[in-house]
Amino acid sequence: EGQIPASLAGAPLKVLFARARDISNRIVSPSTEDCGASPPPSPGDSKLALALLAKCGELAEECFSSNETVQDANTSDLEYLMIPFHQGQVAAQCSDIDKRGDALKAAAAHL
Fold first, then answer.
1. CB under 8 Å to 8, separation ≥6 — which residues?
2. Predicted model pTM
3. CB neighbourhood size of 33 (10 A)
4. Separation of alpha carbons 52 and 101, rounded Å
5. Is residue 46 within 8 Å of residue 94, measured between CB atoms?
6. Measured between alpha carbons, how far is 46 from 57 in angstroms, rounded to an integer?
7. Contacts of residue 103, Cβ cutoff 8 Å, sequence gap at least 6
8. Where is 87: in which H helix or E strand?
């Protein structure tokens, strides 16, 4: 499994999610229009993105309470409801034929 770099280990949810979303976007929609502005995804990016998103999921649970109504939730925290979607998108991009079945099952669980 991917490991979160030490530089991000104690980072707040907002920072972790931004980093995970950036990596996820690069994996899911590699851009050829940027003329090299962002590096192409590396083989370890999927593992890193999934590790970051898993950590974000844990931290995001603290943002929402079962006794809160939708009106009680902070607007800025609503983006964290998309964490499972990002996890599913990244998992669906698995190109290793031996792991593809498991990756698709994981993606379906998140989507």
1. 15, 16, 19, 52
2. 0.78
3. 5
4. 22
5. yes
6. 16
7. 91, 92, 94, 96
8. helix 83-92
Distance of alpha carbon 7 from alpha carbon 54, whole angstroms = 17
User: Which residues are CB-contacts of 100 (< 8 A; sequence separation ≥ 6)?
Assistant: 94
pLDDT in tens, 43-58: 788 889 999 999 999 9
**Closest by alpha carbon to 90, among 79, 102, 81, 103?**
103
pLDDT the model gives residue 11: 94
Helix, strand counts (H, E) of the chain? 4, 0
What's the CA gap between 49 and 34, in Å, rounded? 21
Helix (H) or strand (E) holding 51: helix 45-60
Question: What single-letter amino acid sits at 46?
Answer: S
Give the whole-angstrom CA distance, residue 41 versus residue 63: 30
> For residue 71, with 0-12 CB atoms within 10 Å meaning exposed, 13-18 middle and 19 or more buried, which class applies?
exposed
Residue 84, exposed/middle/buried by CB under 10 A (0-12, 13-18, 19+)?
middle
